[in-house]
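tl;dr need the bound structure. longer version: we got a ligand (adenosine-2'-5'-diphosphate) that a collaborator sent over and nobodys looked at where it sits. i said id run it. heres the input, straight from their email, havent touched it
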Amino acid sequence: SSATPLEDLPRGLQGVVFLKVTSVTHWTDRTFSFTCERPETLRFRSGEFAMIGLVDGERPLLRAYSIASPAWDDELEFYSIKVEDGPLTSRLRHLKVGDEIVMRAKPVGTLVHDALTPGKRLILFSTGTGIAPFASVIRDPETYEKFDEVILTQTCREVAELDYGRHLISGIADHEFLPEIVGNKLRFIGTTTREPSQLMGRMTDWLRDGRFAEATGAPLDPATDRVMICGSLDMLKDHKQICEDAGMREGSNSAPGDFVIEKAFVD
Ligand code: A2P
């Protein structure tokens, strides 16, 4: 996407592509999302992450970011936290339309259909910006070909942090071709832990005390449910334990299973 001939670039910048930013949305003082051009040759599976960032002098400053847009989209979308002293996000937060970000190499990841065996319910557990890969998965037609029911959960500290997910869901309802594909298969359960809201508490607690079963119609069941998990290391550990206690096996690209996990990447 860049007009700069590769041989003219400093060594550290060879192998990256420059992508023009097409929109920026600030959701809260802690989170924002942006879209950029997609390289014509870029192929990825919904749910994967890529190395993106900015140029710092002659070197790229890159971090892993889940691609929040679905694989069919001609733009790329990312959802990011703003870390006060974060080397990358403290600069990335000032992005404006027309600026350029850089991206390196091929997207990879485990939050993909290939890493799960067939099932009936797909349950996507996230906290904070861990919702990003699922923003991609829930807009992918393959998700609805493979599952009868898709449940996305996101737990955040404050109510305003749920806005990105709510907007995502209403965007699907208003989309030109997604409503026909998604039908009434998709549900979003957003909970808060540090500010009062209609639904409160960590989803791990909901799973343990029966609120999850009550809200969705059934407890976690390895016979019917497949799970993807994305959040902090502690969150992953707790959710993984709950899946294993329910009799589920962890999957990977080389050996598909009942649940898959990936760390939500932070600066
Ligand atoms: P809590 O407020 O009870 O810590 P963070 O910003 O720290 O990553 O947290 C984002 C959200 O994830 C918060 O609502 C937080 O709840 C929740 N959370 C943190 N740790 C866990 C965990 N181990 N399991 C489930 N949810 C968690």
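gonna send this back to them w/ a short note. The mean pLDDT is 94.
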